[in-house]
Amino acid sequence: MNTLTAGSPAPAFSLLDQDGNTVSLSDFAGKKVLFYFYPKAMTPGCTVQAQGLRDTKAELDEHNVVVLGVSIDPVKRLGKFIERDNLNFTLLSDEDHAVAEQFGVWGEKKFMGKVYDGLHRISFLINEEGVIEHVFNKFKTKDHHEVVLNYLNEN
């Protein structure tokens, strides 16, 4: 797994959102994008992570940051996640994990003695010019939003 690093241009992507609409990185020119990968919608850790971002949306807005959550879930499941947890940001479906591979977040994982390929929980802050400004890869799901806001407030 070769995860992209700060200073790298973010790969151009187009993915379907929870409503089946195509969303591309170019749609957000002039804004910062928190492009966060999470393993599976509606699981405990992913729910806590999403709720933290939901609850700090106003603060993220003040920093001109748009949140895009990405998983390999089908579009239909993303819509259910948004509805169930009243999420106020866009979720994207990367079912074939092609975008995850471009960002270097698809790779070997271990869980309960099993080894398998899966999506790693890593977030990228993409700046207004489409360049990765920061990579968040050390956080707990419950404090992900705080780690992001701390970074934004310090920079």
Task: Please provide a written account of the structure.
The chain has 155 residues and is an alpha+beta fold. The protein has helices spanning 44-55, 57-62, 75-85, 98-103, 144-154, and strands at residues 14-17, 22-24, 32-37, 65-71, 90-93, 106-111, 114-119, 123-126, 132-136. The protein has a seven-stranded mixed β-sheet with strand order 2-1-5-4-3-8-9. It is globular. The model has no long low-confidence stretch (mean pLDDT 94).
Number of strands: 9
Number of helices: 5
Mean pLDDT: 94
Work out the helicity level: 25-40%
Alpha-carbon distance between the two ends: 28 Å
Estimate the strand proportion. 25-35%
Outline the low-pLDDT stretches.
none
Strand order of the largest sheet: 2-1-5-4-3-8-9
CA-based gyration radius: 14 Å
Shape: globular
Largest sheet: 7 strands, mixed
Structural class: alpha+beta
Order of helical and strand elements: EEEHHEHEHEEEEH
